[in-house]
TrEMBL record, chains A, B:
Protein name, entry field: Acetylornithine deacetylase
UniProt keyword list: Cobalt, Hydrolase, Metal-binding, Zinc
Cofactor (UniProt): Co(2+); Zn(2+)
TM segment ranges: none
Residues covered by the Peptidase M20 dimerisation domain: 203-313
Annotated GO MF terms: hydrolase activity; metal ion binding
Stated family: Belongs to the peptidase M20A family.
InterPro entries for the chain: ArgE/DapE, Bact_exopeptidase_dim_dom, Peptidase_M20, Peptidase_M20_dimer, Peptidase_M20A
The organism's taxonomic lineage, starting at the top: Bacteria, Bacillati, Bacillota, Bacilli, Bacillales
Highest taxon of source: Bacteria
Length: 439, 439
C-alpha cells in the first residue's frame, strides 16, 4: 500500500516539474533580503492557501521574543517582515513534523560580479541562477512540492505537517524563535538548507566575536619606542589557531570525517591603526567560532575567554594589556537529532529507495535554525536539501534543478512514513467524498 | 670682537624672554592646520616687516611646482595657503643661510584628550602647551628671536639670512619646494625641528606604501576551503620585518648609534575582510618605509619591490597571487650635511660655548624639509631645534620654554660665524648713522 502511495507521490512531482520550476523562479525574482520579505511571503501564503492549508501570517515581535535568552537580532523591530506558517492538519494519531525554511536571503553584493541580474531566476543548462535560489528557496520549493503532492494525490496523514516560511535566519533566527513562541511544536523537523542532498543529523553552531588588541602608539620613525597592535594581533591570531587545533582534536565523531576542521575558528575581519607613519595602538579582530553540537554556547565562550587569558604567559605585554573579548551580532545554536531517530531512518530509507545510493551522512559545517528548534523548542531537526553551500552567499548563486525535485520526492515519502497515512483518495483533494474532506 | 658680539646677542635674547613667550603664544593660538595657515602667516609677515626685512608672500602653485619630480601633495591647489619669506640682506662677501620652519601643524585630534584647549598656548611650570608648539612654532620663534637679536643689536652680516615660514611640511613639503623654485637658494640651511637640542646632520627620509594581500573567500564554517588573506598578510608583515632587519644591518654610521632601528619599516594600518563568517580575500597594509640618507627614494622602492617578489619562494600562494605594492600619499626625502661642514662646526662650537656640554649629534629618525632643500635645492641642511618629537602629533603637545631661548642664542651666534660680520653698531638698527643703515 505505502509503496503504491510513494509511486503516486513521485509521479506527481515528476509530472509537475514545469510547475515547480515556475514556482521557484517566481520566488527567486522576489528580492527577499532582510526587511524586504513581504512580497515573497505573500506568494508563499497564496500557495499554501491554494493547497487548502490553515495559513497563519504575523509580524514577529513583543517582549516574550526580545527577552528570550536565545533571541539575537540587530533589528529594533520586524516591521513589515512577516512569518508565514501553513498547517496541513493530520487526522490524528500520528507523529507531527515541522518543515522549516527561511525566506530571507543575504544581500546580492556587487551587481557587476553577477553574469545575470541577481534576482533574474535565469535558467541555463538545468541550473537556475539568483540570490537565494540555493539558500534556500530551492529547499522551500521542495517542501511545497512535497506537501502539494500529498494534497493533490488525496493522501491524508495522521500527524500534522507544519510548514514554516520564516524571516531572519541569516541574522540569528528570530523568525524561527517567534514561531516556537507562537506555539508551533512538533515531534521532529526537517530543514532543507543546501546540503547538496547530504543528510546532516548534526549542525555546527557558531557565534561572532570581536577581540580588541592594544598596542602603544609612537612615531613610525622610532617605532621601537611603541608597541605595534598589529604585531600583537598576529600573536592573538596564532594563539586562536592553536585553540582551534585543540578543540578539533577532541572531536572524534565519524560524522566529521570529511571536515578538515569540524568546528573552525575563522578570523573574518581585521582593522587597526589610522596612520601609515604611526605605530598602531589598537587592532580589532572579528570572527566566527564554530560550536559543536556536543557543547553549549556558554561552554564554548568560556573556553575562548580562558584561552585568551593564557596569552599573558606567552607575552608579558598581554599581562598589562589583556585583549578584550566580546560576543556580538549573529549566533546560531548547534543542533542535532539522534542517528537512530525515526525521522532519520525514514529519510535515509527513502533516499536509498529513490536516489539509488546510500546517503552521505555528515555533520554540517554551519548552523541552521535547527539549533533553535532543538534548544528553544525541544524539537530535534535534520537538515537535508538541494543546492550547495559553495554557491550560497556568492555571486552567480545557482541550484541544480534536478536536485529540487529529488529532494521533494524524498521528503514527500518521508512524511508518509513519519506522520503515517490515515486515508487515501485516488481522486485527490478535489474529491467530493465527505469522508475524505479536510475539516 | 666676535665674543663681544655673541655676548650682546645672548644678552638680547635673555632680556626679551617675555617678548618671545608672547610671540610663541600668539603663534600657537592661531590654528594653522592645513588650509588654515593664513592668519599665522600674516602674523609672521608682520614680525618680519617689523624687523625691516624684505618680505615675500605668495600662494604656491603653477606647473613648475606640480610637475616637479619631488612634488607630492594630496591638494589640488594651495588656495589661501601662503608661503612667507623674509630676507635679511647681507652686506656682501659672506656665506648665506636659509632658516626654514614650517607653519602647518597636524590636526589637534580628539579635543577630549587635551587637558586644555589644543590652541590655548597655556603656560604651566615653564612649559607652553598647544598643537604645533613643539612641531614647530617653538623652533620658528627661536629663528625669529635670533634674527631680531642681530637686528636690534645693530649687527650687520656679510651673507644673506633667508627666513622661510612654509606650508605643507606635514604633507610632503610642497611649501619648501615652492620656495626653492621661487629662487631662494643659500650655501646651507638650518631647520629648527624639535630635536630636543640635539644636532641632526642626517635626516631619515620616508615614504608611504600600501600592500594588497589576496586570499580566497569561503564560508567560515569550511574555512579550510578558502585562503585567509589575514594569515597571508601575517607572512608579509614577517617578511617586511626581515627586510627591515637586513637594511638596518647595513647601517654602520655611528650617528645611528642610539637608534635601535635606524630606518624602520612601520606597518601603521591594516584592514581586511568584510564579514566575520567569511574567509577574508583581501587585506590592505599601509606603512612607512624609512629611507637612509645613503640611498635614494628610487633605490629603497626597488629594494622593497624585489624583496616582496621573494615571497613566492616562501609560500607558493604568492606565486599565483603576488602582493601588489603601491607608493602613495606622503614622502619625505632624506637629507644630510657633511659632518665637517662649516655650519656644523659653528653650530657645535656655539652649542658647547653656550650650553656648556658637548652637543649630541645624531641622525634624525624622521624626515624634514631638509631633504628637499638638499635634493631639489642643492642646499645642505642641518636640523637643530627646541622641543621633542615625543610630544609632536600627540595630545597635550608642549615645549620647554627655556629650550626655545637656548636654541635662539645658539642659532644667533652661529649666524654670526657662518655669515660673517660686516659692521656693528652699538646703538642698534634704530641708529641714524647712515653708514649702518640697511639698503
Amino acid at each position: 500500500m505505502t509503496e503504491q502511495i510513494k509511486k503516486e507521490l513521485t509521479g506527481w512531482v515528476h509530472a509537475h516539474r514545469e510547475y515547480g520550476i515556475n514556482l521557484l523562479q517566481q520566488l527567486v525574482q522576489q528580492d527577499s533580503t532582510q526587511g524586504n520579505e513581504q512580497d515573497a511571503q505573500r506568494l508563499v501564503a497564496d500557495i499554501l492557501r491554494g493547497m487548502d492549508l490553515e495559513v497563519d501570517i504575523w509580524e514577529p515581535g513583543g517582549e516574550e521574543l526580545s527577552r528570550h535568552p536565545d533571541f539575537i537580532s540587530a533589528r529594533e523591530n520586524f516591521k513589515g517582515s512577516l512569518n508565514v506558517v501553513g498547517v496541513l492538519k493530520g487526522q490524528g494519531g500520528g507523529r507531527s513534523v515541522i518543515l522549516n525554511g527561511h525566506i530571507d536571503v543575504v544581500p546580492a553584493g556587487d551587481r557587476e560580479q553577477w553574469a545575470n541580474h541577481p534576482f533574474s531566476g535565469a535558467i541555463i543548462g538545468g541550473r537556475m541562477y539568483g540570490r537565494g535560489v540555493t539558500d534556500m528557496k530551492g529547499g522551500n520549493v521542495a517542501l511545497l512540492l512535497a506537501m502539494e503532492a500529498l494534497q493533490e494525490s488525496g493522501i491524508r496523514l495522521k500527524g500534522d505537517v507544519i510548514f514554516q516560511s520564516v524571516i531572519e535566519e541569516e541574522s540569528g533566527g528570530a523568525g524561527t524563535l517567534a514561531a516556537i513562541l507562537r506555539g508551533y511544536r512538533a515531534d521532529a523537523a526537517i530543514i532543507p538548507e543546501p546540503t547538496n542532498l547530504k543528510i546532516f543529523p548534526k549542525q555546527q553552531g557558531s557565534m561572532w566575536f570581536r577581540i580588541h588588541v592594544r598596542g602603544r602608539s609612537a612615531h613610525g620613525g622610532t617605532r621601537y619606542e611603541g608597541v605595534s597592535a598589529i604585531e600583537k594581533s598576529m600573536l592573538v591570531v596564532e594563539h586562536l589557531r592553536k585553540l582551534e587545533e585543540m578543540r578539533n582534536k577532541q572531536i572524534t565523531d565519524p560524522l566529521y570525517e570529511n571536515a578538515l576542521i569540524p568546528v573552525p575558528i575563522n578570523i573574518g575581519k581585521i582593522e587597526g591603526g589610522d596612520w601609515p607613519s604611526s605605530v598602531p595602538d589598537l587592532v580589532k579582530l572579528e570572527g566566527r567560532m564554530g560550536v559543536s553540537p556536543e557543547e553549549t554556547i556558554d561552554e564554548a565562550q568560556t573556553e575562548m575567554t580562558r584561552w585568551l587569558a593564557q596569552l599573558a604567559a606567552i607575552d608579558p605585554w598581554f599581562k598589562t594589556h589583556p585583549p578584550r573579548l566580546e560576543w556580538f551580532g549573529a549566533r546560531w545554536l548547534p543542533g542535532s537529532i539522534p542517528l537512530g531517530h525515526g525521522l532519520m531512518n525514514s529519510l535515509c530509507a527513502n533516499f536509498r529507495d529513490l536516489i539509488g545510493t546510500d546517503p552521505v551522512i555528515e555533520a554540517s559545517p554551519w548552523g541552521t535554525d535547527g539549533g533553535l528548534l532543538t534548544t528553544a523548542g525541544g524539537i530535534p531537526a535534520v537538515v537535508f536539501g538541494p543546492g550547495t553551500t559553495e554557491m550560497a552567499h556568492f555571486p552567480d548563486e545557482y541550484i541544480e534543478l534536478d536536485h529540487v525535485f529529488k529532494a521533494a520526492e524524498v521528503i514527500a515519502c518521508t512524511l508518509v512514513d513519519w506522520c503515517g497515512v490515515a486515508q487515501t483518495n485516488k481522486a485527490g483533494r478535489k474529491s467530493d467524498d465527505p469522508e475524505n474532506a479536510i475539516h
